[in-house]
Specification:
Strand order of the largest sheet: 8-9-5-10-4-11-12-15
Distance between the termini: 63 Å
CATH architecture of the largest domain: 3-Layer(aba) Sandwich
Number of helices: 12
CATH topology of the largest domain: Rossmann fold
Shape: elongated
Strand content: 15-25%
Number of strands: 15
CATH class of the largest domain: Alpha Beta
Bound molecules: adenosine-5'-triphosphate, magnesium ion
Structural class: alpha/beta
Order of helices and strands: HEEHEHEHEHEEEEHEHEHEEEHEHHH
Radius of gyration: 23 Å
Helix content: 25-40%
Number of domains: 2
Length: about 375
């Protein structure tokens, strides 16, 4: 039998454990408290959580005990969960933004984050479904991805990604909730008392400003922003807050929808956001019983709009009941039915988006 482990070995093992939402080592975050090692190899560790009712208590406890048990010589592991003191929380908060320009981490010239706003003229064309699935597809390709739900009045991202709970805050910093490897933030994560939905004009801008500056995004490779329908204030705020953002426009094939989508593109132009691609959604439907293909909304609107804007048509996504079911059940189609034509189209769109945003590509 191996001898009881030393303190150093235990701390090394704990250093490899990340907080699931902050995605930093629990040692670096100052979350490790007392460590007791008995002669017979039993180890007891105290872990200090940011808040008492931390929704991820069980997950953190599991990660810590798994890491402890794996250390040679450990014969048993006990993990006690404590709560940080105000001073400890303040220290952690300071550490999180060290080296980041908190005023807006994405406006910094050195920021490598590609920001993509997903827009449409019309409501209900599939922006939020596309945003969620693109995010998962990019994350599956190994990129770090954030999703900012900028649809303050009509948010749907929490349901689509199956994360309908309150977010944790560390002092004034709001921590995104992780889903499918993607960091997500939505007004839907703020408790009722935090989120008066009377936000209009300047208040709306204020809310979006805090989504940009007070959420711990931690510089992902891609930040996707789900916009509300239409051509209103939100796009203007996003353009001001995230001046390096690019936009993709989602449309359905009808020519009437394309005309409305054109207005979204005109708005992008006014606020100086380059449109980098068009995604056509609900392009066709395959009847499951006969296999017959129906162009439900005929028109070729996606191609027409892409041609008009001189940008690529990134993908045509078919109308599939599984897309809607996936959105309702919190399991987007890219993960729920990865072999479906719609999931493939979402991955094609992600590939096209990466190409369009690659350094050197003209936008
Ligand atoms: N390709 C598709 N096949 C089947 N259903 C779809 C498809 N795309 C979207 N849907 C469904 O259509 C509805 C509207 O989609 P979604 O919420 O993504 O649109 P949106 O443009 O974000 O809407 P809003 O303008 O209200 O924000 C949802 O019920 C969604 O599940
Ligand atoms: Mg939406």
């Amino acid at each position: 039998m191996s001898p009881a482990p030393g303190r150093e070995e235990i701390l090394t093992a704990l250093a490899a454990v990340d907080d699931p939402e902050l995605r930093r080592s629990i040692v670096d975050l100052g979350m490790v408290g007392d460590v007791d090692i008995a002669d017979d190899g039993r180890v007891a560790v105290a872990i200090k959580l940011t808040v008492e009712g931390c929704p991820l208590r069980a997950e953190i406890q599991k990660r810590v005990s798994t890491a402890l048990i794996a250390v040679p010589g450990v014969t048993g592991a006990a993990v006690r969960l404590d709560t940080m003191t105000d001073a400890e929380r303040a220290a952690m908060r300071g550490g999180l933004s060290a080296g980041l320009d908190v005023s807006s981490p994405f406006t910094d010239a050195g920021s490598a984050t590609r920001v993509i706003a997903v827009a449409s003229g019309k409501g209900g064309v599939g922006k939020s479904s596309v945003t969620a699935n693109l995010a998962l597809a990019l994350a599956d390709q190994g990129h770090s991805v954030g999703v900012m739900d900028a649809d303050v009045y009509g948010y749907s991202i929490p349901r689509i990604l199956g994360v309908e709970r309150a977010a944790v805050t560390v002092e004034d910093l709001m921590i995104p909730i992780e889903a499918f490897g993607v960091r997500v933030f939505s007004i839907g994560f703020l408790t009722e008392e935090d989120s008066p939905v009377i936000w209009r004009g300047p208040m709306l801008h204020k809310a979006l400003t805090s989504f940009v500056t007070e959420v711990f995004w931690d510089e992902p490779d891609y930040l996707l922003v789900d916009l509300p329908p239409g051509t209103g204030d939100v796009a203007l705020s996003i353009a001001q807050l995230l001046p390096k953002a690019a936009m993709i426009v989602v449309t359905t094939p009808q020519l009437a929808a394309q005309r409305v989508a054109r207005r979204a593109a005109a708005m992008a132009d006014r606020v100086d956001l380059p449109v980098v691609g068009v995604i056509e959604n609900m392009s066709w439907f395959i009847a499951p019983d006969t296999g017959a293909r129906y162009e439900v909304f005929s028109g070729g609107g996606g191609q027409a709009l892409a041609g008009e804007l001189d940008v690529p048509l990134l993908a045509q996504v078919p109308l599939e009941p599984a897309v809607a079911l996936g959105g309702d059940s919190g399991l987007p189609i890219v993960h729920g039915s990865p072999d479906s034509a719609a999931a493939k189209a979402m991955r094609t769109a992600a590939d096209g988006l990466r190409t369009a945003l690659a350094p050197g590509a003209t936008t």
